[in-house]
């Protein structure tokens, strides 16, 4: 009897880990599709990218808003976790900051779509925005401080200013195919560099 209980106890956590991994795969696929096609992209495109059936997505996320909110939170966590990894892997703090800002730009594309989806739930959107600032502002501040300490960028740059500036450059990028927000953000990051 104890052997059976022990076996059942070991199997359940493995299943939960598999379920979490499957959900991450779905969220990664949805984020990639949202970045390229917007948050109104067909669910079948997300399912195809994730290698699952449409019903699987609806089982995890019954509505499009549920999926978008989950992607939003997933991207926040991915950005938050990426900052220290990028800083560790170099080659320089400025390069790490630039790579992190690229992840942040992908996130912003989804965030702008989220705002449209959640127009009727202002409180929910404000709560997610506060979560976004709580998780990402310290990461950006650490990257900015490391680049400043290395003498690569101006020491008076505030992380909030940088995030706000990048956000403003990304607004409206989905409405004009001639506007390349990522290129302008790249120019901004290059422009932070101090010349020696």
Automatic annotation (TrEMBL):
Keyword DNA-binding: yes
Molecular function as annotated in GO: DNA-binding transcription factor activity; transcription cis-regulatory region binding
DNA-binding region: 42-61
Gene3D superfamilies tied to this protein: Tetracycline Repressor, domain 2
Superkingdom: Bacteria
UniProt KW keywords: DNA-binding, Transcription, Transcription regulation
Domain HTH tetR-type: 20-79
Region (Disordered): 1-20
InterPro entries, alphabetized: Homeodomain-like_sf, HTH-type_TetR-like_transc_reg, HTH_TetR, Tet_transcr_reg_TetR-rel_C_sf, TetR_SbtR-like_C
One of the Pfam families matching this protein, by short name: TetR_C_43
Keyword Secreted: no
Name of this chain's protein: AcrR family transcriptional regulator
């Amino acid at each position: 009897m104890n052997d059976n209980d022990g076996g059942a106890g070991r199997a359940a956590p493995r299943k939960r880990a598999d379920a979490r991994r499957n959900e991450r795969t779905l969220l990664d696929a949805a984020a990639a599709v949202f970045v390229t096609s917007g948050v109104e992209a067909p669910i079948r495109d997300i399912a195809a990218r994730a290698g699952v059936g449409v019903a699987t997505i609806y089982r995890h996320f019954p509505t499009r808003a549920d999926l978008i909110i989950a992607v939003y939170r997933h991207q926040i966590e991915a950005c938050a976790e990426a900052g220290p990894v990028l800083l560790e892997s170099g080659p320089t703090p400025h390069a790490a900051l630039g790579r992190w800002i690229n992840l942040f730009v992908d996130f912003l594309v989804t965030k702008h779509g989220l705002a449209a989806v959640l127009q009727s739930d202002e409180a929910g959107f404000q709560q997610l925005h506060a979560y976004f600032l709580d998780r990402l502002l310290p990461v950006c501040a650490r990257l900015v401080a490391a680049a400043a300490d290395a003498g690569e960028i101006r020491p008076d740059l505030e992380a909030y200013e940088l995030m706000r500036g990048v956000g403003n450059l990304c607004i409206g990028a989905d409405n004009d195919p001639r506007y390349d927000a990522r290129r302008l953000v790249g120019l901004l990051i290059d422009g932070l560099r101090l010349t020696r």
